[in-house]
Amino acid sequence: MYRKTLMAVFLLLLVGSALVSGAVARRGSTGASGEAAQRISSALCDLYDLVKSIFGPLIVAIVVLAAVIYAGGHVLGQEMGARAKSWALNLIVYTIIGVILFIILPYLLGKLVPSLDLEKTCG
Predict the structure, then answer these.
(1) CB atoms inside a 10 Å sphere around CB 44
(2) Where do the DSSP E strands lie in the chain?
(3) Closest Cα to residue 116, out of 26, 60, 108, 31?
(4) Could you say which residues of the chain have pLDDT below 70?
(5) What is the pLDDT of residues 74-86, one digit of tens each?
(6) Distance between terminal CA atoms of the chain?
(7) Which pTM was predicted?
């Protein structure tokens, strides 16, 4: 269980760093440190806007998928039904954790790095 969770966190970090590095590379790879800071800030804003735009529909899709899996568990046998209910519960729990992190993360980043206040910088 912990191994799967760690693998999922690692995969999310890998995808996030790839998105940020791709956005930074798209804006240019040379320049002074002020330009580099601006590019990093711009890339983080792009990533933040992307996550904000897909977050709502993704939550709805995951909750609907969990409901379908839970309902399908009642149709199947007892062992498969228990697994389906467990999968549905895991989907809901991880979705709630994701929502909490999404709400708290901009605030924490603003407190840790005041120049990187996502709410003010990205709009």
Answers:
(1) 19
(2) none
(3) 108
(4) 1-2, 6-7, 9-33, 116-119, 123
(5) 888 889 889 999 9
(6) 38
(7) 0.59
